[in-house]
């Protein structure tokens, strides 16, 4: 990612919970290496734990594409978790990434809970906390399965392929936010006949479920998928959708999950719908101005913004340049798929 | 005695050219053989200098030279630019470049000299191209985003063509995005993964965490060795990586020196500094101690040999990045130079670090 500009971040902070319910703060700082170890860790009064922290951070670095030997990252915890606790691992890994500019900086330290036996594959196996507070980043099969999922990308080693794309949810000014849609696909067994439930969206009402099925079936038809191959689950980050501007994001997440779309380095942020997904067409939707403002605010380095071609003439001046300055890119499309 | 004389006069051994130009790019050739029609010979001496022997000639090799015979192609292959998107790919048609008279050594000849080992198959070569492409995309040096526009595609193509020319010495005839299905079926791939996962025992929380060194080395091996390939053999991997460093670093340095950068005192000084640091890395690579010796006559523990070999492999990986960076320098405009110099600084620092660690007899882990 855009760690190219070295002076981006010099400190990153994440929080985690201990078994007794207290909060531990993980702080990572970056300094010139000067012949020292690549990662230095410390926890008050627990040298064995520090060694384990260093190991976790090093293992998680194996999934990174870019190796930089110039910096030392110093990671510290302000209190020592018990020897059997492991929920702090995710916070350490994320702090190590954020301090090197691999994750967008956050205004307030985020709460992250998760442990893994497969950090070197980027996998997150689970979290132990009983009832974590809302808004926490949780590791595990039902939540964040692997590190790439932070930007919506499918895991290259899991047998269920799932991908996310984001869309702007316009709900009147202050509550505007980017909402994600996640598509998980699993191959149908040989000879298994697809039924109505082959595309399931458990959190939606029946009318919207029908719309989701229509959009996915159309887009897959456009791909030339002759026989249905997938059992599909669709989830949304928030309830209370209205309109159909999520469709483009849904279709793109589906294409990512089925391994049929080029991958952006960051997230896909898309808005658009279509009356003819079977022809791959993308049509315009309502709310150009607030959505563009939201995207300009929320986009981070590596993100790919896709908007309908119908919007191109009316885009706010400077949006393209503002996104490029952030390291994101924008394209207006009239159809999905290859060029 | 006399029989030896006759033996020398005897007919040159026949060269087996089967597959050359289709499944094979190049194959070692014995001295004295006639080159098959359309194929070119490359003679490599002990220090890695190469010369070409034009098509139709006889491989007359001097003492200590080894011979290669390659067919210029054209070749075609399919690449998957993203490991996570196996059903979408690029169909590439390329040819080994006709010699460029402006350079003293063709890049493809250098490739054969430093990385050639036995037959160079099209599949193996395509694998190397794919790895280079995936790394450039993952690092963001090339961009192939979803719903690529025509402008973005052209920029990608320019960068990709230059990468292949600079890194492998081949020219791209044509490259188009393709649907790789039904040749590659993602559903079948996922099913295979599910079977594989079921075989692996579940490792729960209650198990004691693996000791740092063991887990770290296991992960290191996973990076160096792609599953399905032979296990990591320290001696062989180390020798291969060091040969690459020894042969390619001087050429790389030459190219960095020649890279026509926009004038300017500050840039010039940065370039000078880079070349000087590369020079020292070169020196380090050519004075590298033997893998298995801690000191003259003192054998080194196998675990330390493994550590040394890993650092050689890392240095070779940084070398790959350096070639890719050179390709970007050759396309660069004035604007992006700052980022390129920063990347160059990172890559040279990685080279320095890896060669420095390779020299050490035992790891000195300090904070």
Features:
heterodimer; A: 339 residues; alpha/beta; Ribosomal Protein S5, domain 2; 2 domains; 6-stranded mixed β-sheet; 22% strand; disordered N terminus; B: 367 residues; 3 domains; 5-stranded antiparallel β-sheet; 3-stranded antiparallel β-sheet; 14% strand
Describe this entry's structure for a reader.
- The complex is a heterodimer of chains A (about 350) and B (about 375).
- Chain A has 2 domains: about 10-150, 2-Layer Sandwich (Ribosomal Protein S5, domain 2), CATH 3.30.230; about 160-335, Ribosomal Protein S5, domain 2.
- In chain A, about 20% of the residues lie in helices and about 20% in strands.
- Chain A contains 6 helices and 13 strands.
- Chain A has helices at about 45-60, 90-100, 205-220, 245-255, 290-300, 320-325, and strands at about 10-15, 25-30, 40, 70-75, 110-115, 135-140, 160-170, 175-185, 200, 230-235, 270, 305-310, 330-335.
- Chain A starts with 10 loop residues before the first strand and ends in a 6-residue tail after the last strand.
- With about 375 residues, chain B is an alpha+beta fold.
- Chain B folds into 3 domains: about 20-70; about 75-180; about 230-360, no CATH class.
- In chain B, about 50% of the residues lie in helices and about 15% in strands.
- In chain B, strands 3-2-4-1-7 form a 5-stranded antiparallel β-sheet. A 3-stranded antiparallel β-sheet of chain B has the order 5-6-8, with helices on one face. In chain B, strands 9-10 form a two-stranded antiparallel sheet.
- In chain B, a hairpin with a 2-residue loop joins strand 9 (about 295) and strand 10 (about 300).
- Residues about 200-230 of chain B have low confidence and may be disordered.
- Chains A and B meet through helix 1, strand 8, helix 4 and strand 13 of A and helix 3, helix 4, helix 5, helix 6 and helix 9 of B.
């Amino acid at each position: 990612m855009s760690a190219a500009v070295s002076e981006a971040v010099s400190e990153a902070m994440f929080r985690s919970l201990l078994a007794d319910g207290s909060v531990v703060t993980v702080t990572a700082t970056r300094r010139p290496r000067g012949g020292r170890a690549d990662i230095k860790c410390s926890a008050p009064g627990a040298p064995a734990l520090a060694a384990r922290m260093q190991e976790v951070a090093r293992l998680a670095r194996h999934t990174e594409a870019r190796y930089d030997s110039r910096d030392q990252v110093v990671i510290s915890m302000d209190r020592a978790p018990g020897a059997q606790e492991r929920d702090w691992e995710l916070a350490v890994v994320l702090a190590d990434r954020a301090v090197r500019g691999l994750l967008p900086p956050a205004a307030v330290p985020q709460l992250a809970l998760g442990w893994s036996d497969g950090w070197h594959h980027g996998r997150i196996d689970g979290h132990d906390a009983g009832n974590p507070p809302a808004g926490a980043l949780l590791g595990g099969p039902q939540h964040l399965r692997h590190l790439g999922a932070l930007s919506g990308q499918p895991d290259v080693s899991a047998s269920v392929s799932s991908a996310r794309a984001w869309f702007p949810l316009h709900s009147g000014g202050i509550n505007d936010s980017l909402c994600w849609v996640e598509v998980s696909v699993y191959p149908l067994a040989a000879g298994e006949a697809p039924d109505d439930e082959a595309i399931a969206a458990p959190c939606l009402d029946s009318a919207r479920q029908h719309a989701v099925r229509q959009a996915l079936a159309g887009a897959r038809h456009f791909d030339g998928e002759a026989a249905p191959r997938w059992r599909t689950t669709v989830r949304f980050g928030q309830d209370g959708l209205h309109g159909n501007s999520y469709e483009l994001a849904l279709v793109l997440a589906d294409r990512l999950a089925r391994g049929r779309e080029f991958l952006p380095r960051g997230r896909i942020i898309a808005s658009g719908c279509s009356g003819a997904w079977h022809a791959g067409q993308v049509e315009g939707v309502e709310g150009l101005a607030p959505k563009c403002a939201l995207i300009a605010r929320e986009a981070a380095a590596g993100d790919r913004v896709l908007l309908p071609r119908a919007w191109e003439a009316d885009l706010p001046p400077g949006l393209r340049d503002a996104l490029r300055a952030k390291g994101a890119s924008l394209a207006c499309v009239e159809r999905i798929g290859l060029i | 005695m006399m029989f030896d004389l006759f033996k020398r006069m005897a007919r040159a051994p026949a060269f087996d050219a089967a597959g050359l130009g289709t499944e094979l790019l190049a194959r070692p050739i014995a001295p004295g053989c006639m080159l098959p029609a359309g194929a070119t010979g490359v003679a490599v001496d002990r220090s890695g200098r190469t010369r070409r022997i034009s098509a139709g000639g006889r491989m007359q090799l001097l003492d200590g030279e080894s011979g290669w015979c390659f067919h210029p192609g054209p070749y075609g292959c399919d690449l998957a630019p993203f490991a996570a998107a196996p059903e979408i790919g690029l169909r590439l048609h390329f040819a080994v470049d006709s010699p460029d008279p402006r350079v003293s050594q063709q890049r493809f000849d250098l490739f054969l000299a430093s990385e050639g080992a036995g037959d160079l198959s099209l599949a193996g070569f395509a694998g190397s191209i794919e790895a280079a492409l995936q790394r450039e995309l993952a690092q963001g040096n090339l961009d192939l985003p979803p719903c690529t526009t025509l402008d973005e595609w052209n920029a990608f193509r320019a960068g990709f063509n230059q990468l292949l020319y600079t890194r492998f010495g081949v020219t791209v005839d044509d490259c188009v995005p393709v649907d790789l299905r039904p040749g590659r079926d993602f559903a079948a791939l996922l099913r295979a993964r599910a079977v594989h996962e079921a075989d692996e025992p579940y490792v729960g929380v209650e198990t004691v965490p693996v000791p740092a060194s063991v887990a770290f080395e296991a992960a290191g091996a996973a990076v160096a060795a792609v599953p399905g390939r032979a296990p990591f053999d320290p001696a062989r991997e180390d020798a291969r990586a060091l040969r690459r460093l020894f042969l390619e670093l001087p050429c790389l340095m030459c190219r960095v020196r020649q890279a026509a950068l926009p004038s300017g005192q500050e840039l010039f000084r940065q370039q000078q500094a880079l070349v000087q640091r590369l020079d020292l890395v070169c020196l380090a690579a050519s004075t590298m101690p033997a893998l298995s010796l801690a000191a003259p006559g003192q054998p080194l523990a196998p675990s330390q040999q493994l550590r040394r070999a890993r650092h050689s492999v890392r240095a070779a990986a940084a070398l790959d990045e350096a070639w890719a960076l050179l390709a970007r320098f050759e396309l660069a405009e004035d604007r992006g130079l700052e980022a390129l110099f920063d990347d160059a600084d990172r890559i040279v620092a990685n080279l320095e670090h890896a060669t420095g660690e390779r020299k050490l007899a035992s790891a000195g882990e300090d904070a």
